[in-house]
């Protein structure tokens, strides 16, 4: 009988032994080492043990009896010190064991985040039964708090288990959404919502700075200074293959122990299996491929053919009530097509990715009933063209007659409620369409109120219109924002507020976006809408900003940038000009030019130089001029009563005041202003987005001018007597535009769309409303008035953005 | 020329973002998609030479910051009615350390899947 020694009694080696004993029970005398003082148990079921849904006994795979029955010599609780390949012995702590064949199944160890305080009592990982017991013990203390570092599979299962045991749990995740290796943003958002419903706090983009405490953990401090009290910290950020013994024995080890398709290492008598192996450059952490490896290895030991290959994997989370599934490759690309199904009311999200008539990837959340069917389609590479139209609805829809939504609507009784918000029934809508000759959705909204609140019934109302009007109804009358949605800007803005949508993934899910992550058209628009509607709450998404707004400078045709410092009201000084001249010299800036908005433009600045240029300008007291933004740009002024013999008011002072009050605010499109001190209008205020003409009687407020693609004189909004009134009026007007404007829609186009009457009604006629808009602007300025240059010049924000991430020299490239 | 150069971590690039790498043959733009796929192309739009690393990244495309040309990061081809292509470079990502390696041999982009 040959001697087989196995190092590690985990799930992979356990499956090897099972298969081996089934095929040829007498082939080997087996010795099994395990560092843990117990045999093989189902490690992936530790989560139900943690949550209390199962006991440890229930997840034991191999009992003492089983080992006895198969005459396995168990050396549990004993670590292996070395493998002596020359003498073919394994050296354990308590003595040597000779082998003919050896299996290394050392598995993996949890990755410990290298932060201060990681050794404190109460900081644990989540890997084995001892960790699980430690967590159960910690949760026994009433009111105790846990922080779980890592929002992946393991971390979330730990969090859910601890929460079920009554702890206050916070999950910290470095990336922008949970389970980012398996899920896309939309599914990550739904998962977060579900976890929060269960009382688990989730913090994304949370980087752990250090763990605080004397001997025991007391708190976790994040990079942004946030401090979270904690009695228990669970690190679940990932695993690292355990390869020290193999490496010391001189086996080929790359990132893990290198094996061939028969699971043989570089020594033909030594095999490896499980999380400690690397095959074709791939590492393994999920159980399905490990079992596959085990089968191949067991067969190989008894001389049966077989070879291991990497197959598609799928992921499910073992948290009761969170149904999610992902499999295959669900990135979008050339020749790939995605089908997205979203049902916001049920919290359902499904995305399928198809390439060459084959399903290649799937992400599902909320309803994973068809997961196995989709997974089979991915693995088998079956053609899907025949069921393309109904594929996303799952297996049960295949072969059935397609549903006709129109027939369903036509069949509704007259008193069926269509709009729940406003209590509007079917006959009221159809009646209004016929009797009042309505042809547009907006008209139906005005006359019946249907679909004018939350908007979820919009589809139904449109179907009713189509039924009633026949071909006369053209739902495409609303121009969609972009190819990712059927909704127009107006609907999107309305729904963001009505449904309290506060992040881009949330908008895309709840408004049924047709793509997974939007495009270069809709993302900047959504980012602006969310900033404007939820000031202080919404976190700006840099990656959804056009480059100019991301790096706070204007990109030029050659990839260099232009820099325009703010000069309040167009006023500068010798000190500022000297600083600008010094910057131009120091950074060899090729062009210095005056702009139409009374500023100085430094053109041709290299991206790498931007932070240093800003630092120098900041030092002279200048801030970003926002010349790059859909934002308040410039307030141009004339010299007014300060110098001019015709000046009627302090136009310079008012211009400076407006600019200092309003700088930093983001707007749907750029906003340029001017204040002229008399009707001679030297500041050219009558072609600006907002202009003021001073007269002896006071201030004439103009707006909606244009002097670009279109040329258009301003309209007069109203006249006021004092500077304070002028400021309040202008601020309220701009705030109304901020809340109503469509992204990239200049003020003159906004006015054309909404009409002068509605603007006057909001900011001129009603002092209370005006004050309301004014206050809302002031509120949003609390978080908006930060100089983006100063944030970046100090290296604090986005420091990585401005330099190449690496440099490859000629010598390195030639090697 | 087929050697792999370590250029940094996947997490050095924001999701749906890009960074660039300076090489003797000019700048190379390195992109990270929402799904963590990493692609590399020359940092020059075929239209008017715009720096693609400064564009908005969506699905596996980038929109050039200068004139909104949309370029496939996988093939380097311009999307839509335009014609033209940029050179693409092979990248691979170590699934464990998440280090990105770049090959300067300009061939079709290859992706090494991140294993869990």
Quick structural overview:
The complex is a heterodimer of chains A (815) and B (116). Chain A has a 5-stranded parallel β-sheet with strand order 3-2-1-7-19, with no helix packed on it. Chain A has a 5-stranded parallel β-sheet with strand order 9-16-10-11-12. Chain A has a 5-stranded antiparallel β-sheet with strand order 22-23-26-25-24. Chain A is globular and about 110 Å long.
Walkthrough of the structure:
Chain A: Siroheme binds at residue 682. The complex is a heterodimer of chains A (815) and B (116). The two termini of chain A are 52 Å apart. With 815 residues, chain A is of the alpha/beta class. Chain A is globular, with a radius of gyration of 34 Å. Chain A has 28 helices and 40 strands. Chain A has a 5-stranded parallel sheet with strand order 3-2-1-7-19, with no helix packed on it. A 5-stranded parallel sheet of chain A has the order 9-16-10-11-12. Chain A has a 5-stranded antiparallel sheet with strand order 22-23-26-25-24. The mean pLDDT of chain A is 89. With 116 residues, chain B is mostly beta strands. Chain B has one domain: 3-layer Sandwich (Rieske Iron-sulfur Protein). Chain B contains no helices and 10 strands. Chain B has strands at 4-9, 17-23, 26-32, 38-42, 56-58, 61-63, 70-72, 88-89, 91-93, 99-103. The N and C termini of chain B lie far apart (30 Å). The relative contact order of chain B is 0.23. Chains A and B meet through β21, α18, β40 and α28 of A and β1, β2 and β5 of B.
Q: What topology emerges from the helices and strands here?
A:
The complex is a heterodimer of chains A (815) and B (116).
Chain A: E1 2-7, H1 11-23, E2 28-34, H2 46-51, H3 56-59, H4 64-69, E3 73-76, E4 80-84, E5 89-92, E6 95-98, E7 101-104, E8 108-110, E9 123-125, H5 129-139, E10 145-149, H6 153-164, E11 168-172, H7 185-197, E12 200-203, E13 208-212, E14 219-222, E15 227-229, E16 232-235, E17 239-241, H8 244-248, E18 257-258, E19 270-272, E20 277-279, E21 282-283, H9 287-301, E22 314-316, E23 324-328, E24 336-343, E25 348-355, E26 358-365, H10 371-380, H11 405-410, E27 417-419, E28 424-425, H12 426-436, H13 441-448, H14 458-469, H15 489-498, H16 504-510, H17 522-533, H18 547-551, E29 554-555, E30 561-563, H19 574-586, E31 591-594, E32 600-605, H20 610-619, E33 632-637, H21 640-643, H22 651-662, E34 671-676, E35 690-695, E36 698-703, E37 706-707, E38 711-712, E39 715-720, H23 723-740, H24 747-754, H25 756-763, H26 767-784, H27 788-793, E40 806-807, H28 810-814
Parallel strand pairs in A: 1-2, 1-7, 2-3, 7-19, 9-16, 10-11, 10-16, 11-12, 18-20, 33-34, 34-35
Antiparallel strand pairs in A: 4-5, 5-6, 8-17, 13-14, 14-15, 20-21, 22-23, 23-26, 24-25, 25-26, 27-28, 29-30, 30-32, 31-32, 35-36, 36-39, 37-38
Helix pairs in contact in A: 1-9, 7-16, 12-14, 15-17, 22-23, 23-26
Chain B: E1 4-9, E2 17-23, E3 26-32, E4 38-42, E5 56-58, E6 61-63, E7 70-72, E8 88-89, E9 91-93, E10 99-103
Antiparallel strand pairs in B: 1-10, 2-3, 3-4, 4-8, 5-6, 6-7, 9-10
């Amino acid at each position: 009988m040959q001697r087989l020694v196995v190092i590690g009694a985990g799930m992979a080696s356990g499956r090897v032994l099972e298969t081996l004993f089934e095929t040829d029970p007498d082939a080997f005398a087996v010795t099994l080492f395990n560092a843990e003082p117990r045999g093989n148990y189902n490690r992936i079921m530790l989560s139900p043990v943690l949550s209390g849904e199962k006991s440890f006994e229930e997840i034991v795979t191999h009992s003492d009896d089983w080992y006895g029955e198969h005459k396995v010599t168990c050396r549990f609780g004993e670590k292996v010190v070395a493998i002596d390949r020359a003498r073919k012995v394994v050296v354990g702590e308590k003595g040597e064991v000779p082998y003919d064949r050896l299996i290394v199944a050392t598995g993996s160890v949890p990755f410990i985040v290298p932060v201060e305080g990681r050794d404190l009592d109460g900081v644990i990982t989540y890997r084995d039964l001892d960790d699980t017991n430690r967590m159960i013990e910690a949760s026994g203390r009433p009111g105790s708090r846990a922080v779980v570092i890592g929002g992946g599979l393991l971390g979330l299962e730990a969090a859910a288990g601890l929460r079920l045991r009554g702890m206050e749990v916070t999950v910290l995740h470095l990336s922008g959404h949970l389970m980012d290796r398996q899920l896309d943003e939309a599914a990550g958002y739904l998962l977060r919502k579900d976890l929060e419903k269960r009382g688990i706090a989730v913090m994304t983009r949370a980087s752990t700075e250090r763990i605080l405490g004397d001997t025991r953990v007391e708190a976790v401090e994040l990079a942004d200074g946030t401090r979270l009290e904690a009695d228990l910290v669970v690190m679940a950020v990932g695993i690292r293959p355990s390869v020290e013994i193999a490496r010391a024995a001189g086996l080929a080890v790359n990132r893990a122990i290198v094996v061939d398709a028969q699971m043989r290492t570089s020594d033909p008598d030594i095999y490896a299996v499980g999380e400690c192996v690397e095959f074709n450059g791939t590492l393994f952490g999920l159980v399905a491929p490990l079992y596959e490896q085990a089968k191949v290895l067991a067969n190989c030991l008894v001389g049966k053919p077989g070879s291991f290959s990497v197959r598609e994997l799928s992921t499910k989370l073992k948290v009761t009530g969170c149904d999610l599934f992902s499999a295959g490759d669900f990135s979008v690309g050339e020749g790939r097509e995605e089908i997205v199904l979203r049902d916001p009311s049920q919290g359902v999200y499904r995305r399928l990715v198809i390439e060459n008539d084959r399903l290649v990837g799937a992400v599902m959340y909320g309803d994973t009933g068809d997961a196995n069917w989709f997974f089979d389609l991915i693995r088998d590479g079956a053609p899907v063209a025949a069921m393309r139209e109904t594929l996303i609805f799952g297996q049960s829809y295949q072969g059935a007659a397609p549903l006709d939504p129109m027939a369903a609507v036509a069949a509704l009784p007259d008193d069926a409620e269509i709009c729940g918000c406003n209590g509007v029934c079917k006959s009221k809508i159809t009646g209004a369409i016929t009797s009042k000759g309505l042809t547009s959705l907006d008209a139906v909204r005005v006359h019946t109120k249907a679909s004018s609140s939350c908007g979820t019934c919009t589809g139904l109302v449109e179907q009713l219109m189509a039924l009633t009007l026949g071909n006369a109804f053209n739902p495409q009358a609303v121009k969609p924002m972009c190819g990712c949605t059927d909704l127009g800007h107006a609907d999107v803005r309305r729904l963001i507020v009505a449904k309290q949508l506060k992040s881009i993934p949330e908008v895309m899910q709840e408004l049924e976006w047709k793509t997974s992550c939007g495009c270069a058209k809709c993302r900047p628009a959504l980012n602006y809408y969310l900033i404007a509607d939820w000031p202080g709450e919404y976190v700006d998404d840099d990656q959804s900003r056009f480059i100019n707004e991301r790096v706070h400078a204007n990109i030029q045709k050659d990839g260099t940038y232009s820099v325009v410092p703010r000069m309040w009201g167009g006023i500068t000084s010798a000190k500022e000009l000297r600083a600008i001249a010094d910057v131009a010299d120091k950074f060899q800036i090729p062009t210095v030019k005056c702009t139409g908005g009374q500023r100085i433009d430094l053109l041709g600045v290299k991206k790498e130089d931007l932070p240093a240029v800003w630092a120098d300008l900041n030092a002279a007291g200048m801030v970003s001029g926002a010349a790059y933004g859909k934002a308040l740009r410039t307030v141009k002024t004339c010299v007014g009563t300060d110098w001019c013999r015709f000046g009627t008011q302090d136009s310079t002072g008012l211009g400076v005041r407006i600019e200092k009050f309003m700088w930093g605010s983001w707007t749907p499109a750029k906003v340029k202003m001017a204040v002229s001190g008399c009707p001679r209008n030297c500041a050219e205020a009558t072609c600006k987005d907002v202009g003021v003409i001073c007269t002896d009687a006071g201030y004439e407020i103009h707006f909606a001018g244009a002097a670009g693609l279109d040329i258009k004189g301003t309209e007069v909004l109203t006249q006021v007597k004092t500077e304070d009134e002028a400021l309040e009026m202008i601020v309220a007007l701009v705030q109304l535009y901020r809340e109503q404007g469509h992204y990239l829609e200049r003020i003159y186009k906004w006015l054309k769309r909404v009409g002068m009457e509605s603007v006057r009604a909001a900011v001129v006629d009603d002092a209370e409303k005006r004050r309301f808009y004014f206050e809302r602007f002031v509120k949003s300025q609390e978080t908006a008035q930060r100089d983006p240059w100063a944030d970046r010049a100090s290296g604090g924000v986005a420091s990585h953005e401005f330099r190449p991430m690496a440099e490859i020299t000629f010598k390195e490239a030639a090697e | 020329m087929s050697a792999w150069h370590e250029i940094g971590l996947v997490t050095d690039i924001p999701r749906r973002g890009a960074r660039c790498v300076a090489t003797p043959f000019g700048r190379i733009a390195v992109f990270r998609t929402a799904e963590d796929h990493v692609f590399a192309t020359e940092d020059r739009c075929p239209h008017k030479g715009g720096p693609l690393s400064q564009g908005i990244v969506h699905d596996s495309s980038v929109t050039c910051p200068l004139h909104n040309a949309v370029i496939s990061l996988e093939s380097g081809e311009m999307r839509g009615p335009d014609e033209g292509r940029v050179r693409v470079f092979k990248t691979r990502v170590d699934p464990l350390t998440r280090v990105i390696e770049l090959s300067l041999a300009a061939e079709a982009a290859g992706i090494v899947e991140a294993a869990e």
